[in-house]
Amino acid sequence: MGHSHSHGGGAEALSAGGRHRSRLAIALVLIGGFFVVELVTALLTRSLSLLSDAGHMAADVLTLAAALGAATVAGRGDRSGRRSFGLYRIEVFASLFAVLVMLAVAAWVLIEAIGRLGTAPEIGTTGMLVVGVLGLAVNLVVMRILSGGARESLAVKGAYLEVLADTVGSIGVVVAGVLVALTGSALADTVVALAIGAFVAVRAVMLGREVLGVLAQETPRHLDPAAVQADLAALDGVTEVHDLHLWTLTSGMDVATAHLRVEERADAHGVLDAAQELLRTRHGLEHCTLQIEPEAHRTDEESAW
User: Fold this and answer.
1) How far is residue 31's CA from residue 57's CA, in Å, rounded to a whole number?
2) Contacts 24+ apart (CB under 8 A), 75-84
3) For position 156, what pLDDT does the model report?
4) Displacement of CA 100 from its chain's centroid (Å)
5) Does a structural domain hold residue 13?
6) Is the pLDDT higher at 81 or at 47?
7) Is there a single domain that holds both residue 161 and residue 281?
8) Contact 43, 281 (CB under 8 A)
9) Any idea what the CATH number is for the domain that residue 285 is in?
10) Does residue 41 sit in the same domain as residue 180?
11) Is there a single domain that holds both residue 265 and residue 140?
12) Could you please report the per-residue DSSP string of 132-166?
């Protein structure tokens, strides 16, 4: 006896990213608008730290746009009939795109900083400080908007980490502006730019590891396969649990499949209902596919043993 089920309500009921589209849209408008201001000011003041922060904010814009697009597309049904899981994984690929953008920004900042070593450009600290403070305020507001969704969605988390890194960058711009104003040296501006690039790279690697774990169908960290298997095996009538698989399809949607071998006289329907209830309440697994096998049932491979 096989059984599979999914909960209704469309992709948005299952995709965490779909539930936070409005957050992403508001954040995109705020960050996109301020990016133009920061870029123009960076070019006028000749501040590398401000320019690197503007580059990072451009990455924010791309990341937010990709996350919003992914959340929107994931909420649409599949008309081809060939995608049995729909378009949920678009959200994960959007997170991978965010990682690549962050790494590209970090590399660009490093190249620019190396090219400036040994030069002494004049930097307009007033504009640099004003925009740095305003950028910090905008980033804090956007972080607040995205904070709730970042706990549920990988795409929103990618955007949140981007804005978090940019917040640190804004603080660095303010610090660099103060130091340049006090010392008259552009060295602080270059050092802060390098620090921003390094921070962006570290955050990108951390998010990248999480994204690759999902794409590799690793067992989610909050689930213990041994505990899940032991709990299923302890159900009345179950004699063996095999072919247990646990993975994350997309943010907020963990998936499980398993074969349960049961006693000949066991109530198969009762075992199935008990197993589903156990996985849902004890392990938070809503989307499961379970196959019930009578004790006498053996596959060709098992019969050959």
Assistant:
1) 7
2) 75/10, 75/11, 75/12, 75/15, 75/18, 75/21, 76/11, 77/10, 77/11
3) 76
4) 13
5) yes
6) 47
7) no
8) no
9) 3.30.70.1350
10) yes
11) no
12) HHHHHHHHHHHHHHHHHHHTT-HHHHHHHHHHHHH
**237-294 pLDDT per residue, tens:** 999 999 999 998 876 688 999 999 999 888 889 999 999 999 999 998 988 999 999 8
Count of domains observed in the chain: 2
Task: Print burial letters for 57-70: b (CB count within 10 Å at least 16), e (below 16).
Answer: bbbbbbbbbbbbbb
> Distances from the Cα of 233 to the Cαs of 15, 87, 213, 288, in angstroms?
30, 33, 27, 16
Largest CA distance in the chain: 86
The enclosing domain of 74 has a CATH number of 1.20.1510.10
Q: What is the DSSP string of 208-265?
A: HHHHHHHHTTPPPTT--HHHHHHHHHTSTTEEEEEEEEEEEEETTEEEEEEEEEE-TT
Where in the sequence is the domain holding 16, given as residue range(s)?
8-215
Of 227, 276, 92, residue with least CA distance to 219: 227
CA pair distance 170, 41, nearest whole angstrom: 13
Q: Output the pLDDT for position 13.
A: 42
In terms of Cα–Cα distance, which of 144, 176, 178 is closest to 163? 144
Distance CA 58, CA 154 (A): 20
Comparing C-alpha atoms, which of 273, 110, 263 is closest to residue 199? 110
Residue type, 91: E
Q: What is the mean pLDDT of residues 50-77?
A: 75
CB neighbours of 4 closer than 8 A, spacing ≥ 6? 288, 289, 290
